[in-house]
Inverse folding.
């Protein structure tokens, strides 16, 4: 077990709706990253937060947004859902400060989002 | 830009046989390299990582990987596979600038037959 939890486990939404996914990092981990894993693909980096500020972003549109809270929890929000947003969403926490590339990322079990 | 190629989508091996999963990366400098394993319904578990130094890296569950700069490869090996090793395996490269995010390959699904 990595000590990283995510909720909910599964979620079904319809196109155009909004969704919030939650992650609880390991205690003491200041960095959280979110990844999207489409069926049959490897995870793709969405964005990363360090001490409650966005610290880097992958090739995802602004309707993907996030928040990180002081209690080591974080959220991924997706607005105006599209069918292609159906995927497994993974969060990963690490000790790392910005630039500490050697820090291991610990992944949660993911949230399976289905958009109909 | 970083990228990772895992040329084998699916590999089947017999229990007790040796295993090698291939990974090739593209990166402008010495990369940080990782192997993760994902079982059905589970998140990603780190098997091993390479940052620098000895090019043969030992990991958990009896896995090892060798970094070969000349071939831009980081292949994962195990001398004797167990049925519980059946899972999806992902190779990843770590970015050296900006956020310490990971770039993943598309994965190799391992099936173990008795």
């Amino acid at each position: 077990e990595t000590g990283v939890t995510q909720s909910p486990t599964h979620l079904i939404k319809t196109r155009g709706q909004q969704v919030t996914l939650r992650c609880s990092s390991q205690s003491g981990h200041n960095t959280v990253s979110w990844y999207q894993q489409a069926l049959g693909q490897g995870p793709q980096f969405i964005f990363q937060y360090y001490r409650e500020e966005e610290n880097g972003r992958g090739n995802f549109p602004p309707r993907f947004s996030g928040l990180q809270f002081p209690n080591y929890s974080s959220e991924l929000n997706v607005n105006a859902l599209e069918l292609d947003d159906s995927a497994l969403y993974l969060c990963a926490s690490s000790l790392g400060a910005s630039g500490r590339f050697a820090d291991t990322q610990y992944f949660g079990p993911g949230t399976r989002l289905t958009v109909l | 830009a970083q990228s990772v190629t895992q040329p084998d989508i699916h590999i089947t091996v017999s229990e007790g046989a040796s295993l090698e999963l291939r990974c090739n990366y593209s990166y402008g400098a010495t990369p940080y390299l990782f192997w993760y394993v994902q079982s059905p319904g589970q998140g990603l578990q780190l098997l091993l990582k390479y940052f620098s130094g000895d090019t043969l890296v030992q990991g958990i569950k009896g896995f090892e990987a060798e970094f070969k700069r000349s071939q831009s490869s980081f292949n994962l090996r195990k001398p004797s596979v167990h049925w519980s090793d059946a899972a999806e395996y992902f190779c990843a490269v770590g970015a050296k600038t900006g956020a310490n995010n990971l770039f993943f390959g598309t994965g190799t699904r391992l099936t173990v037959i008795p």
About this structure: DSSP finds no helices and eleven strands in chain A. Chain A has a mean pLDDT of 90.
